Hints:
Layout: H1 3-8, E1 18-22, H2 26-32, H3 37-58, E2 62-69, H4 77-100, E3 103-108, H5 116-128, E4 135-143, H6 145-161, H7 172-178, E5 189-192, E6 211-214, H8 224-235, H9 245-249
Parallel strand pairs: 1-2, 1-5, 2-4, 3-4, 5-6
Helix pairs in contact: 2-3, 3-4, 4-5
The structure holds 3-methylbut-3-enyl trihydrogen diphosphate (IPE) (2 copies) and magnesium ion.
The site of one 3-methylbut-3-enyl trihydrogen diphosphate has 11 residues, from β2.
Amino acid sequence: MSKTTLKEKIDLQKLPVHIATIMDGNGRWAKAKGKIRVFGHKNGVKAVREITEGCAELGVPFLTLYAFSTENWGRPKFEVNALMSLLVETIGKELKTLNDNNIKLKAIGDLSKLPGRTRNALLNAIDQTKDHTRMTLTLALNYSSRWELTRTMKSIAQKVKDGQLDPDQINEHTIQQHLSTHDIPDPELMIRTSGELRISNYLLWQLAYAELYFTDILWPDFTRESLYHAIIDFQNRERRFGKTGDQVIG
Ligand code: IPE
Ligand code: IPE
Ligand code: MG
């Protein structure tokens, strides 16, 4: 099937408003080629460009990429350091692309624990792209959902303690407003590569009603076409939100 045919199958009126991705399989991709894991991470950058440009071209307004989890600190130091350096390098290289394409960069996660160089590169890119409006690209960096929910509960508890908030008034909206994603809509489509069938501590609250899409493709091999396949799959699903199929069609 040619590229255009696949892209043309996408209904542009029914695009997911927010796609969240777990970029997985870099290590296995490298291993299959007889290379070290870091080689896989370096080659994953191309796939980041593919999905970012693919989403921007179609008109998907929000894309969130899981780049480093709080659990990933447990990897060998050499790999963690390489990932942090790769981030600095990539942000530096891609800043122009973000600016040229009117893409706003954001980050969620505990950035205070990142090495200074990584944090500075990130904050600089966030600042330089803050007025862009075509798409918001969020990097989940030193992120985990349990970290985020714990922090959310702490800040709500503090407001109650300070007398700014009445516990009777806490509802789903209050919680949503205290998440690090308070200013972006919940993902409608979550893509995980590499064949793993789990969420790995990613956006647990926000994914409550997302459509989950799992593919065996390893992250460095993920292309625009892989994105198109995921979106077409999403568009063929019946999203019922607890109702009956007849109600949804009606
Ligand atoms: C995803 O690929 C990248 C990060 C988690 C940073 P992995 O590094 O997890 O690759 P596998 O799962 O070991 O193949
Ligand atoms: C999830 O991938 C985290 C990122 C993609 C950054 P992992 O490879 O770390 O997840 P597990 O260990 O397979 O659950
Ligand atoms: Mg993995």
